């Protein structure tokens, strides 16, 4: 496949990605037209079963998008209006939107500077110093709100340190909900279980997004919740469909967050290739790693020894980021920033009461991150050109770094 157009290197290439499987996708659409089953039904149930199995979870429920997936997972897991949910500020705002839509408050803790995921030590400090225990429950001292859940984000495709987070959460009676929206197929070596576990199988529940650019992306928007808890999945399947236990019988006030059958068919087709595509991303990451090895200009992503990163994004750190991004753009290379302004410093999150300096690692990282092109089929020759543009004089002999 030719992954470039007119000499340009896109940030993500969805066009040729879909041309590869176009006949199958068109066939799925024709099947949906013939069956006229567009909402729910056998196609959705089949995908839910297959996706749960892929993630190593017992159950899955398709929903309209990843934000709804996290909101419904929080509510189904027992988060109530007025509760506090602990998460990170180095993530897309949907993480906090879901917490707010569940009626809860967000509390932010800092990240590990190598993985950019939640730092378990920072979580412990927050619970030890910013909280107090009353009647067997944990309360945020400042807001007097009960702290009931933790949402670690498996950022960029790498699982957070789940064993440590789960151990801390268990000690304080907190529920852990995984934000796995960028981590389809990522793995974590759990010492608690003695085996590799997939993102989406470790917390009480997990949220996934199938936004088109994700490792497993729909041709539109979609999401899913995975869990090993039957009560959680039954609640979500009811809540996503206006709270109906059966037609016109509403047990709760739910919402409209159903997965379209056409999207379920598309996702089922792509799911068969996801492991292969993830390995192609991992190989592209290895190429970048070799090209940047030894550079004093570039900090490359660090894969935790207990993780198998699936590189939804390949995010480097550089000084003078804007100059690098401008030089790449002028050469036809598209890049991204994930995320340039941490959530605790966003106006939309001002009500949570955080100030500049409260999360020093998050703030330092946000000023330097730069997301490079990453997708299955990214050509090493394009990566070599990208690296040369970033390294400048350091790029001497760069071709020799590739096998």
Task: Describe the protein in words.
- Helices cover 35% and strands 16% of the residues.
- With 403 residues, the protein is α/β, with parallel strands linked by helices.
- The protein has two domains: 17-271, Aspartate Aminotransferase, domain 2 (3-Layer(aba) Sandwich); 274-401, Aspartate Aminotransferase, domain 1, CATH 3.90.1150.
- It has a seven-stranded mixed β-sheet with strand order 1-11-10-7-6-2-3, sandwiched between helices. The chain has a three-stranded antiparallel β-sheet with strand order 9-8-14, with no helix packed on it.
- A hairpin with a 2-residue loop joins strand 4 and strand 5.
- Helix 2 packs antiparallel against helix 9 and helix 3 runs parallel beside helix 9 (261-271).
- The longest helix has 19 residues, at 274-292.
- The protein is globular.
The main sheet comes to: 7 strands, mixed
CATH-assigned fold name of the largest domain:
Aspartate Aminotransferase, domain 2
Whole-number average pLDDT?
Answer: 96
**How many beta-strand runs?**
16
Low-confidence stretches: 1-6
Q: What is the element string, with H for helices and E for strands? A: HHHEHEHEHEEEHEEEEEHEEHHEEHHEH
Task: Kindly report the name of the CATH homologous superfamily of the largest domain.
Answer: Type I PLP-dependent aspartate aminotransferase-like (Major domain)
Shape: globular
- Which structural class best describes the helix and strand composition? alpha/beta
Q: In DSSP terms, counting alpha (H) and pi (I) runs of 4 or more, how many helices?
A: 13
How many structural domains can be distinguished in the coordinates? 2
Quickly give the CATH architecture of the largest domain: 3-Layer(aba) Sandwich
Compute the CA-based radius of gyration: 21 Å
N→C terminal distance = 21 Å
The CATH class of the largest domain, by name, is Alpha Beta
Instruction: Tell me the β content.
Output: 15-25%
Widest beta sheet: strand line-up: 1-11-10-7-6-2-3
Helix content: 25-40%
